[in-house]
Amino acid sequence: MGTHEPRHVSNWQRVWERTWPRALAVREPSAARQGRQAGKKGVLGIGRYIYRLIDNSARLLCMATPKQTPLAQWEIQYAQLRRRLTAIGWISEGYVQNRGPGAGGPCYQWTRKVKGKTVSVALSKEQFEWLKEAIAHWRELQATLKEMQRLSRRVLFETVPHPPRRKKLGKKVLGLM
Fold it and tell me: For the chain, percent helix, then strand, then coil, each to nearest 5?
């Protein structure tokens, strides 16, 4: 009397055994089949679909990832802009210039507008370097704030209900350009 071990068969193997003739079949597109049956010329029956069984991990790799809503994307962008603001150091308006020796005046100069009037201040080399960096930070701050305003207006006009209009407001009118 021989020992008979029970054969272990997975669910996928059972499904495969039941469906393998159909799984390898090639299906003709229905439009081509209908056209050929109606007697139309130039309609070819070219096989287009091949059905095969795949396992779950392969199916999951091919599945499309769910896209985030525009509002969620805008919130992520806005959070990035806020983080950029926290990284900015000392700030100052105006501009600095190195006039070089022999220009007939101070070598380093800081110029800015105060109440519509131009004000210039002579600087040391250390002050010049410090203000040069502070002015670069100021410009970065202005660009970041401008982007935050543009994004805020976009969220406002695309998510908050608005009054009825005859035509859609343009990007220039909304300040999105």
Answer: 45, 10, 40
Tokens of 11: 């669910």
Bridge partners for 98 per DSSP: 108
Judged by phi (left if over 0) then psi (alpha if -120 to 50, else beta), residue 155 lies in: alpha
Tokens of 133: 């960096």
Give the whole-angstrom CA distance, residue 107 versus residue 126: 12
Residue with tokens 């935050």: 148
CB contact set of 131 (below 8 Å; sequence gap of 6+): 92, 94, 96, 110, 123
Question: What is the C-alpha to C-alpha distance for residues 106 and 102, in angstroms, rounded to an integer?
Answer: 9
With 0-12 / 13-18 / 19 or more C-beta atoms within 10 angstroms meaning exposed / middle / buried, residue 81 is middle
Q: Is the CB of residue 28 less than 8 Å from the CB of residue 47?
A: yes
pTM: 0.56
pLDDT digit string, tens, across residues 120-170: 999 999 999 999 999 999 999 999 999 999 999 999 888 888 888 888 888
